[in-house]
Amino acid sequence: MLARMMPRVYEGWVVVGATAVVVTMIGASFFYGFGTIFNPLREEFGWSAAATSFAFSLRQETSGIASPFIGMAIDRWGSRIILFIGLTVVVLGVLAMSFMQTLWQFYVVMGVIAVGTSAAGGQVGLVAIATWFETRRARAMSIMTVGGGIAGTLVVGVAALVEALGWRGALRALAALIVVIGGLAAVNVRSRPPGHPQPMDGIATPPGEAPRHFEDWGVPVRKAVSSWSYIVFTYALFANGFATTALIVLQIPFFESLGVSKTLAGSSVAVFTLTSILGRLGAGVLADRMDKRIVMAVCVGSVGIGMPLLTLTHTYWSALAVMVLLAPGFGGAIPVRPAMLADYFGTRYFGTLNGITALITTLGGFGSPILVGWLVDRTGSYDIGWIVCGAIGLTALPAAWLARSPRALIEAYRRPVALVEAAN
Fold first, then answer.
1. How far apart are CA 351 and CA 354, in angstroms?
2. Residue 416 pLDDT > 60, yes or no?
């Protein structure tokens, strides 16, 4: 729709903008925003921190388990169809949650929402964007993921909704917003069709040079996942996911434990995600200009080093300072991951590979909120949990450094441009 209204704008950037809007909606409502209902649920139902945290871990894990299947569906039916299905499931799940009364119902609807967000979130956008960009791939993906950073700034609004309408009313309001805003954005998302007239990356071909064509190549999934590059790369994501998931899920309760209000605690998420935007954009630009594994290693290493510093904080401002140190590394790893995956293994099976990678990442994050929540119940402090998360997260640094480009696989499966032109 927008591409027809703005024919001089490269359609790839329209796709980036539309997916960024969807990611913002999903992130503000469910990835960051659900932290605002953590304590209201405990207060109303009397659930422990560990039992409540388990639902958030279940959300992450269900999303991860669904990701490979969603990736295969995207490769088969395209991004737009899967995106609309995902948004529909999300809305139905959120409305169901607003009526829940028991813990098992909470777990069930969190699982439903997780499947929907996996289909409607960044996974669809990344698959589509990978087909529109090559030279500027990391940069384009980083701009899309800025939506996730902006989402954190909207948590203050979500927290205000919870305080004004109660957690049930806030969920119903969010469902209505997703229908309107998410639906309008989704109609502008699609993968690059064969024979599209605009040049790749939106970069005009210099006079006298042959135009660049989109190369539809890819390493078969079985060969890709069994390669050394993929194994160490995904371990880095596993370890980094363990560290960062606990931080995201429990950030608002952690700040509330320092004696601040829910709204002020929500503001820490806004500051964290705004600062993460610097990491997302900076890492995206650097990853298009240098070895992506170096950029990834710096990002995940900074998270592992920074997490234990939270044990030294006892006030809102000191904890906020540590969050600002952690945020660029957290944000920077987000766009570099899919850009590396597409560069290393191609775009033909990117949806499936990206889904498998998302599953491995969420496996890393599954246990950390439960563990930290359990430690809080036992010790009354987050300190030990942050130390454990930092120690495991730090092992991602050497793994990312060892994830070299699989040159033999690339040479075996990437067809020369001349062959692609002949086939077209």
1. 5
2. no
